[in-house]
Amino acid sequence: MIIVMEPNSTLAEIKSICEKLAGMNFSCHVISGVNQSVIGVIGEITDELCEKAQLWPKVEKALRVGKPFKLVSRECQPKGSIVKVGKVNIGKDKVVIAGPCAVETEDQMLKTAAAVKKAGASMLRGGAFKPRTSPYAFQGLKRKGLELLYEAGNLYDLPVVTEVVDPRDVEIVAQYADMLQIGARNMQNFSLLQEVGQTSKPILLKRGLSSTVQEWLMAAEYIMAEGNSQVVLCERGIRTFEPWTRNTLDVSAIALAKEVSHLPVLADPSHASGKKSLVEPLAKAALAAGADGLIIEVHPNPDQALSDGPQSLDFNEFTSFMAALGGERK
Amino acid sequence: MIIVMEPNSTLAEIKSICEKLAGMNFSCHVISGVNQSVIGVIGEITDELCEKAQLWPKVEKALRVGKPFKLVSRECQPKGSIVKVGKVNIGKDKVVIAGPCAVETEDQMLKTAAAVKKAGASMLRGGAFKPRTSPYAFQGLKRKGLELLYEAGNLYDLPVVTEVVDPRDVEIVAQYADMLQIGARNMQNFSLLQEVGQTSKPILLKRGLSSTVQEWLMAAEYIMAEGNSQVVLCERGIRTFEPWTRNTLDVSAIALAKEVSHLPVLADPSHASGKKSLVEPLAKAALAAGADGLIIEVHPNPDQALSDGPQSLDFNEFTSFMAALGGERK
Amino acid sequence: MIIVMEPNSTLAEIKSICEKLAGMNFSCHVISGVNQSVIGVIGEITDELCEKAQLWPKVEKALRVGKPFKLVSRECQPKGSIVKVGKVNIGKDKVVIAGPCAVETEDQMLKTAAAVKKAGASMLRGGAFKPRTSPYAFQGLKRKGLELLYEAGNLYDLPVVTEVVDPRDVEIVAQYADMLQIGARNMQNFSLLQEVGQTSKPILLKRGLSSTVQEWLMAAEYIMAEGNSQVVLCERGIRTFEPWTRNTLDVSAIALAKEVSHLPVLADPSHASGKKSLVEPLAKAALAAGADGLIIEVHPNPDQALSDGPQSLDFNEFTSFMAALGGERK
Amino acid sequence: MIIVMEPNSTLAEIKSICEKLAGMNFSCHVISGVNQSVIGVIGEITDELCEKAQLWPKVEKALRVGKPFKLVSRECQPKGSIVKVGKVNIGKDKVVIAGPCAVETEDQMLKTAAAVKKAGASMLRGGAFKPRTSPYAFQGLKRKGLELLYEAGNLYDLPVVTEVVDPRDVEIVAQYADMLQIGARNMQNFSLLQEVGQTSKPILLKRGLSSTVQEWLMAAEYIMAEGNSQVVLCERGIRTFEPWTRNTLDVSAIALAKEVSHLPVLADPSHASGKKSLVEPLAKAALAAGADGLIIEVHPNPDQALSDGPQSLDFNEFTSFMAALGGERK
Question: Please, what are the domains in chain B?
Fold first, then answer.
């Protein structure tokens, strides 16, 4: 920790801070600059200590040196992780997960599974528990949705991923799904993170729509700290001032997460843009920035979808999309 | 709903959209402008219909007329609501809720309760379940914390409010607390909103740090839709690009929420700024903008606090703060 | 400057950095922590040196200690500055500047000057050179506008302020105006800042709509570095994700600017909100946060205004507004 | 224009609005919905009219149908524009513009020109007039810088682009440069836009760091409205809450600008990230999203650069970068 003292601090004031820290078993080195002094503090520093030190007399600021995460860090594991979901190796092969925003009917799921399998997708997605901004909007088929998703995935040999929104549902969702998704709105629902951290299922952790990359990695750290190391990150766009897109896909975050962490990183261009015509360029951009794969919304009839129609591709569009991706997926 | 057609749409294309809507029992009125046509659609419009319509051929955009919330709306209840917590009437009297970020010890709570009562606070706060960015940070005393908070509030005749972060904890927290707080990170934890909506306790709903005012009101609508109408909103700062404050207190949101909704609105200048010297100016600004009260962090020794020290006032500072507020609280 | 070395740096690598700095006449102190080392660098540090040091081998980051501004700093002048504009003392009396967004006609200006004077305003505003997002929108009356503004101010004994947008116009604008305004979009138009810094007129410097407080103060430093110390800051709202207001009035920035700098600070609640009903609550909030005054849009017929109608008050509304402000202006 | 009336408007109030509009020669069509009425207004609508209408009694909001730009619009010119700078065809070939942030010495420019030419760059960049946040930072060599840039470009047959920051400098810069750059901070410096719009030089228009895509296109419209249609857009990152990158490269904006406008679009991954390790992934992402080329900072000794060192590539790094780009530039 570095403590920057205010320009007008006296030697006695600096000494008093050092004594306080010595009493807590830290060692201090004072550097007196032209206008200001700084104190280098050595020992096992916590965020709490750093916050407290801000308040001590004549302290201008206290800065922690080093990153607050450990298990997710590439320093801790230099080689990129591979997370296995059935036969799919996320982090090794470029994976495309496809399917509707919400599970609606058996027919919808079977047709979609067949179509995305044929077009080259390796996993199936579909929401059974839907977090919706309005209490009056369709909230998902819940258990029935899990059954339909499982059935479709099983029939077409596609591992399935679905969102869990309540710690009380983790057990039931884990019975049906091959991978559990934590949605953007729940990225800092720490009870839920701890609960999925206690399962043996791989976790797809979406970035919160106004979370920093560090907060996202700390959310992954929560899951890993419970013993589950099968975490896959997913960038899905951040909230900015731009009104022409629903969110702004942050490709720098993909590159940064790959640089700082060993975890695989996917991108969700469908949610990021909220606009069908942007799905392909954003998907290509995400892969070019280093993403390990994509999650794409596909629906038999997007204009009849019960949620998130505007960004869903129909089967023909998805087939063209996969063909267009061709080279980028190598 | 207003559907704006692309400039190059033909009459046949416009007619086809109208027929589709007629088949769904909506009536349509076409207005042909100089460059573009628009269709006015009459009937009970949902967000889902609006999203779907965006995808129909030659539709440039579909706009819903009117607000998506009902129960929280001032149109629905022109007179401002008063939410009673014990003898405190939020929405009538300007209320100050004070106490530490986290409950730590019995001594801390009793001293704080005595001090804030004496200085004029009307309610006591303190966190027993703490949502923390890092899994390695202090997470709160949990049940023991609830007991200490209850004891201190009871002894000094101060109703108590504390955060609940997990739907499974709502029952136990409701046994000890007079008011349940939904934190900023859980503002769109819909399972938790529904759970507290089923209790008979007043709810303090903090605004998510990147939530729009409309999303905040929709979160309140979730609680009210479950039957609990005792909701108090709390603005606590939004995430912006400014690095010198932790968050940016949005006083416009206070004025807007009061204008659009009948619910009382508090402000939390401590969390908004993360900086002790800003607590007083921001508190005054919030009251001047129309806030019904404040929630302020107070700790016997802020530089020893287990969380959020930098923004906490000590007892002397809180006493001066209350005195300085004087006129604004009328 | 503090240089944080990467965790895996060797002693030789640290030594090599210190030698490079010694060659530039800086002295270095190395502090070896548990995981990482830091180097404290003493001497006259510049931003450029700090940027370069980031690139040296094994450097994780280089942090400059201390603020980059001098003349605007409260450390440099502990007492708040008073900027005189005619008989008005900004920084001493709470000042209200009022008038239309754009100067349109003689009748409009004379009527407005009379009305705002009567209601208690101390200065008159009006735009002759209008920066407009669209090249097809009304761009102001230019020289004719300056004449009308001057005439109205002169007749009603109100000092006038108007915006200058081009360094070539500074001379002519300075002939007519008592105070020159730098608009939000030009806050980092450094040529313009330097040009107005060479006049003897007081300057009203609006904060850029996505400028940090530090960048705003640096823009003031540009003006002061040219020899003109009569700078008044003006907070006018920042760009955020919230769509219900045009911008978000940042009251923390007002309090921070007053804390860090000796310059007076005004607020512009009209532009910040873009909404008439918010002008009064935001004005009160700004004053409560410590603002030295306000700038308010007033127009004889807001619904006929050539620009920015939605946020302008008419004469009756402005009179009520001034009455409502009453207590806060003491 | 669509006028949405408040839910409680009477027929008389609606009629009164229609009469006002009829008096201005617009025709109106009223659509009475379940809760609210809307008025469709036909005629040549301006932004000003739309703003005024917001203020009329019982008007909830007034929405303009259609985009406010014309000349930059793809509707106006369905085929993508090609902007010629010497022998380089921007919009046809994928172009890479390379060079230092600031022109410093003859040796620096000649070496850089030779190196970037050899590595495959097609144009040379270098700043002679530097907009800097601090008045105390290096502001560029000005005229001397223009000469050195011209000489290096001429010798190595590379067209040159350089920034102009003051309308008074446009003439001199145009004498030396093949293309004029408008920097992000000056994107809404409308005097400067108009001045460069009157030259016959191609213009590189950077997006403001908090400008919407629409505002960016309107800035291009300013230039084109003066008669200069040779405009190239350049996305260089927007300001967000993320602290680990200097700005957030907005690849959606690249795809959107290409969709909505016929103008070529470049990307500047060096400024967007402020971090050398991100230049390559962001460059690839930008091209994958549809960018017509890149602008990359290259310096003989980045750790000695007078500005923007941290994001500059040295010659070896640039050569590897160009090789790595290989496939994406087809």
Answer: 2-63 (3.30.70.1140), 83-324 (3.20.20.70)
d(CA B241, CA B17): 43
ipTM of the complex: 0.92
Q: Which residues in chain C have their CB less than 8 angstroms from residue A247's CB?
A: none
Q: Distance between CA A112 and CA A127 in Å, rounded?
A: 13
Subunits with 3+ Cβ pairs within 8 Å of C are: A, B, D
Under an 8 A CB cutoff, do B136 and A305 touch? no
Contact criterion met (CB < 8 Å) for A243 and C240: no
Q: What's the per-residue H, E or C state across chain C?
A: CEEEECCCCCHHHHHHHHHHHHHCCCEEEEEECCCCEEEEEECCCCHHHHHHHCCCCCEEEEECCCCCCCCCECCCCCCCCCEEECCEEECCECEEEEECCECCCHHHHHHHHHHHHHHCCCEEECECCCCCCCCCCCCCCCHHHHHHHHHHHHHCCCCEEEECCCHHHHHHHHHHCCEEEECHHHCCCHHHHHHHHCCCCCEEEECCCCCCHHHHHHHHHHHHHCCCCCEEEEECCECCCCCCCCCECEHHHHHHHHHHECCCEEECHHHHHCCHHHHHHHHHHHHHCCCCEEEEEECCCHHHCCCCHHHCECHHHHHHHHHHHHHHHC
* Residue D305 confidence (pLDDT): 64
B67 CB neighbours in chain A (<8 A) are none
Contacts of D43 in chain B (CB under 8 A): 34
**Which is nearest to C161 in space by CA: C100, C80, C92, C91?**
C100
**Looking at the DSSP assignment, which residues form a beta bridge with residue D248?**
D238
Rg over alpha carbons for chain D, rounded to the nearest Å, is 23
Query: What residue ranges of chain B have pLDDT lower than 50?
Result: none
Contact of A146 with chain B, judged by CB distance below 8 Å, is answered with no
Task: Indicate which of C14, C44, C45, C65 best probes the interface with A, i.e. most A CBs within 10 Å of its own CB.
Answer: C65
Distances, alpha carbon C209 to alpha carbons A192, C213, C247, D219, D235, in Å: 38, 11, 8, 17, 19
pLDDT at residue D37 above 80? yes
Nearest to D255 among A252, A255, A278 (CB): A278
Inter-chain CB proximity A40 and C42 less than 8 Å: no
Residues 6+ apart with CB under 8 A from D323: none
Residue A19 contacts D, CB cutoff 8 Å:
no
Task: Quick: pLDDT tens for B170-225.
Answer: 999 999 999 999 999 999 999 999 999 999 999 999 999 999 999 999 999 999 99
The answer to whether the CB atoms of B35 and D7 lie below 8 A apart is: no
pLDDT at position D310 over 90: no
Ranges C41-50, D80-89, D124-133: which has the least confidence: C41-50
pLDDT-based confidence at residue D319 (cuts at 50, 70, 90)? very high
* Contact criterion met (CB < 8 Å) for B40 and D38: yes
Taking the Cβ of residue B118 and every Cβ of chain D, the question of whether any pair is shorter than 8 Å is answered with: no
Measured between CB atoms, which of D4, D44, D239 is closest to B65? D4
pLDDT tens digits for C56-76?
888 888 888 778 899 999 988
Which range, of A160-169, B113-122, D318-327, averages the lowest pLDDT?
Answer: D318-327
C66 CB neighbours in chain A (<8 A) are 7, 35-36
Read off the DSSP letter of residue D189: -
pTM as predicted: 0.93
Q: What percent of chain D has pLDDT over 90?
A: 68
Minimal CA separation from B175 to chain C, in Å? 37
**Location of structure tokens 């390790």:** D277
Residue A74 pLDDT > 70, yes or no?
yes
Nearest 5°: phi and psi at B256? -65, -45
Tokens found for residue D314:
């040295």
